[in-house]
Amino acid sequence: MKLLKYSFVSIVVAILLTIVACADLDENVYSDLPFDSIDTSDPEIIDAFMGEALAQFRFIYWNWEGYFDLNEECTDTYMTPKRPNGWGAQYIQMHKHTWNAAYSSHLDVLWTFGFNTIGYANSTLDIVPDSGFIQAQMRFLRATTYYMLLDVFRSVPLLTTMDLPAGYLPEQVTPDSIFSFCVSELNAIKKDLGTRHIHGYANRYAANMTLAKMYLNYNVYFEQNDNSYYQKALDEVNEVINEGGYSLAPNYLDNFKQEISSSPEVIFAIPLDATRAAHNYLVNKCLLGSGAAAFGYEGSPWNGSCAVPQFIDSYNANDNRLSYTWTGGPQYQYNKATNTPNDPTMPAISFTEDDWSGTGKLNYSKRVHSIDNPMAYTQEGYRFIKSEIVPGSVGTYGNDVAFYRLADAMFIKAECLLRLGQDEQIAADLITEVRTRSFDNEADATRTIDDLKGGSVYPYGHQEYTSEGFNTWSTFVSTDEGGDDIILGGLLDDLAWEFVGEHHRRQDLIRFKMTDGRNVFNGKSWFCKDATTETKYNYFPIPKMALDANMNLKQHEAYDGVGD
Description:
The chain is mostly helical.
């Protein structure tokens, strides 16, 4: 009976959600719904609605081409180049910043599952009491999803109930309306969220974090220069740091294990499970097939994504986060006896395709020819391994996501202090504290005020190798830009080293500016992406499938008619 109830409720809510996503605009989606017959006092019914909302939020993040890809593929750290086995297409557009109004990959996912999440949350809120833990959880999830939609699309529909007239088609509201709604909601529910640390559920400190993120990026969203919002962000993270009861995990990688409920640093997590809620596909997207043996991994990776070479060059050689995050160079068999991945005392992994090193062994090169011209050859590029690869498993599919963690709150505090010109030594001390666990030498971990306020060490500029052949390198460098002109460039570097692969980088690159007024996201070149004066890339077009489904939606002026 329990399964039947869950199935019925899922069908009902799925029908309700066609109000946002279905292309059949003439269907009266309410005409046959026995909604009044649902026993809304039944805890199982409420659990079903709530569970579906949480599930859809997972899909936002880890559905194919989801939120992770959206915030990483277009940045200066991580990419998926064209390869001999067929990768390319939409990933090249993301890397080069050449998307237009016709682009749908990476956008359809956030739009569809974002509004699915909102729809299920609204359905839950329509039947639960006006206060309490469940109500607060759903309002948090809805507000956080709207924050993500605002960040990516700016102007979107605002829906707060599923009790709507037949045939209703929502209209977009202004970005400031979305912003104000989220702020109001998150402040209203802090008390009901409580302060307990429950893995997979939000507490008031998770609400603080979403608010802090919104305030931190306010000037980007509204093209302002209002320092008061940095003070607001500072107030939110001070509450997290001073009252939340969180502490930095002793080991950096504790935050990226398959199961992270024991990490004292994680503020809000998206729980996954390899059997019942499997999503995270990173190990397969990044590693080469034979490279699985270096980690005792029993799956068959697809050889796609890798590091932008210039980002690897930016690391301090003594920063352990380089080896924690990326694997490069010769690859060796996993040592089962000592539980050591890529162990140099074990036999090297044989591999002869595109054998650039001439050894007949698997050897990931730091250098990559290009994103698409000619391509990245088979062994090119360091591979992302930050998310734990469990020996004997068939994927990272069950790995939890640390959506917010204490280090993020500490970085926000440091950034706000620097932007406000307040307590700058405290800002430097916070960054040093986060870095300390990743360096063997305390002196290497220390960051000064001048370090953070100075330029970036990232070697920006267009850089690719255009010659055909995996062992032929002909360098083409169109620009040699460096990072000296980036305001707070040192802090921007530290954000990358600490948070690469954590849905951070796109937002950070947009927020940080150069001395000529452009942001780094548009104004700098890296690898095969060229600098531009365009600002429309700060956000994305409304997906075509959404415009086709709802005649009330309007495309952003900057994208309107481009690439239709």
